[in-house]
């Protein structure tokens, strides 16, 4: 791996972290100005937790790359070819599941289910599919 490639990845990771931090702070400020203090607190808590875990993963992968897990290397911005393949396959599984979940949610809405509830469950379904497919693909490859 060349030094230029490593520097580019490091710069891209830091740019993503700073952009994520800015997005969390701006969204929390907008929500606070709108009067939704509890939602703003949730955005700050969740957003900063995710950014903090990504920073921990980055430290782990830069100091102990050989013993770091696949998810830590991906979140830390230092994936190898196998890690990229696992991430690509799990993202493909999420995309393929959308072809099943979207018609099922349409049928559920047409049969009387609350549309807000149906739309609220979609992200959780996709997150679950992504996590399960990532773990299964990681164990199989």
Describe the structure.
The protein folds into two domains: about 1-80; about 80-140. Helices cover about 85% and strands about 0% of the residues. The chain is built from five helices and no strands. The two termini are about 20 Å apart.
Total number of helical segments?
A: 5
Tally the structural domains. Answer: 2
Say how many strands there are: 0
What's the quaternary structure here?
Answer: single chain
Q: What can be said about the biggest beta sheet?
A: none
Would you identify the regions where 5 or more consecutive residues have pLDDT less than 50? none
Structural class: mainly alpha
Q: What distance lies between the first and last C-alpha atoms, to the nearest angstrom?
A: 22 Å
The amount of helix comes to over 70%
Radius of gyration: 19 Å
Shape: flat
Q: What share of the residues does DSSP label as strand, in percent? A: under 5%
The overall average pLDDT, rounded, is: 89
